[in-house]
Write a structure and sequence with these properties.
The structure holds two protein chains of two kinds. Chain A is mainly beta. Chain A is built from one helix and twelve strands, in the order αββββββββββββ. Chain A has an eight-stranded antiparallel barrel. The two termini of chain A are 39 Å apart. Chain B is mostly beta strands. In chain B, 0% of the residues lie in helices and 55% in strands. Chain B has no helices and ten strands. In chain B, strands 1, 2, 3, 4, 5, 6, 7, 8, 9 and 10 form a ten-stranded antiparallel beta sheet that branches. In chain B, a hairpin with a 3-residue loop joins strand 3 and strand 4. The radius of gyration of chain B is 19 Å and the shape is globular. Classes of the chains: A mainly beta, B mainly beta. The interface between A and B is large, with 64 and 48 residues.
Chain lengths: 206, 157
């Protein structure tokens, strides 16, 4: 049981820490950017950066929750608030394969700092019914006991897709990228072929 | 100097035509009622626990927050930013009183910035199938007494 004195003492310490930290968090969010502030239905946001992520392998595991494995083989980052590269084979999408996305991989900024991204969201065919997920069938098992774990992902040209993500980042503290640790983002993904890649546009939610 | 990783690039991808437009469409508003906050220090920072005692949802989903068993288990970090994490059960106001599950994660900053991403699970047999697979962006406003939070949610258009 916490008594009142401890609570007040704790609150004072926490308050002082919060005050000291407010400066650093505010400073972290004060980085200049050339991107204009946009507004829609009262929500303010602005372009933070874009990323192209290149792919090669595609695997599915038909667990009860279907899981895909699509490594990020490389890529690059450009835009108002971040420039760098996608670390080759630094991670993958481990999500549902076309449905829920759950990617874990790494960026490296031009200044050398590594930034971890967990990109969660969805990619779906326009007009598809998400409830199909509970009615899906799996590919057959051959007479010799083998089965396919290949999975094919088209481009926007072949299949109209809608991809939206909400990435979370872990960037080094006290780096120019620390603002990414306490900023919510939204993303748009566009599938491309030749070479196989996705172009992401990321906005910071203000 | 850090080890620098190799770059893969298609120069045309940087064209202005690939900066995609995004927007926000209002979806629903959730008000969570909280029991008094309880906090303890752990190796991960301060765990900030708020038991959810009720509340409401309005907009494209209308109903109430189930008052027993929902909670917020956030963490106050070294930089005083709170990593928000909550698990909530909702019931709609239809005759069926359908259950929905809501999970939210995001940031509550000392400067008042409260932004979360939320996923909602609905039963595929029910009337809220439109939420399946989507996520929603929320803007939260904590009441002055800390006993309730109102979050306006938007679908990313």
């Amino acid at each position: 049981m916490i008594n009142r004195r401890e609570m007040l003492g704790g609150a004072a310490v926490a308050g002082a820490a919060a005050l000291a930290a407010t400066g650093s968090v505010a400073a972290a969010h004060d980085t200049p950017t050339s991107a204009p502030v946009l507004e829609k239905n009262g929500m303010r946001y602005r372009h933070a950066f874009s990323v192209s992520v290149f792919f090669r392998e595609r695997v599915t595991i038909d667990a009860p929750f279907r899981r895909a494995f699509v490594p990020a083989i490389g890529g690059e980052i450009w835009g108002p608030r971040l420039s760098g590269v996608v670390v080759p084979y630094g991670g993958a999408d481990f999500g549902g394969g076309g449905g829920p996305l759950d990617a874990h991989y790494m960026f490296q900024a031009d200044d050398g700092h590594l930034i971890y991204i967990n990109n969660r969201g969805y990619m779906r065919r326009i007009g598809s019914d998400p409830a199909d997920g509970v009615r899906r069938s799996v590919s057959p098992v051959a007479a010799d006991g083998t089965f396919s774990q290949e999975f094919v992902s088209g481009s926007n040209d072949q299949v109209p897709l809608r991809m939206r993500t909400s990435p979370f980042f872990d960037a080094p503290a006290n780096s120019p990228h620390a603002w990414m640790n306490s900023t919510l983002f939204i993303g748009h993904g566009l599938r491309m072929v030749d070479p196989d890649r996705t172009i992401f546009t990321y906005y910071e939610v203000l | 100097m850090a080890q620098m990783h190799e770059r893969m690039s298609v120069a045309a991808d940087q064209g202005a035509e690939y900066v995609a437009d995004l927007g926000f469409e209002p979806a629903f508003t959730v008000t969570l009622d909280y029991a008094p906050v309880e906090t303890f220090h752990s190796p991960r920072g301060d765990r900030v626990f708020r038991r959810i005692t009720g509340g409401s949802v309005s907009g494209r989903i209308t109903g109430s927050v189930y008052p027993s068993g929902g909670g917020e288990y956030s963490q106050r970090r070294e930089d005083a930013v709170v990593d928000v994490d909550a698990h909530v059960l909702l019931r709609d106001d239809s005759a069926q009183a359908e259950w929905l599950y809501l999970r939210k994660i995001g940031y509550s900053r000392p400067d008042g910035y409260y932004r979360v991403t939320t996923w909602v699970d609905a039963d595929v047999r029910g009337q809220h199938g439109w939420v399946l697979g989507l996520f929603f962006i929320g803007v939260g406003r904590l009441a002055a007494d800390g006993r309730s939070l109102t979050i306006d949610y938007y679908e990313v258009a």
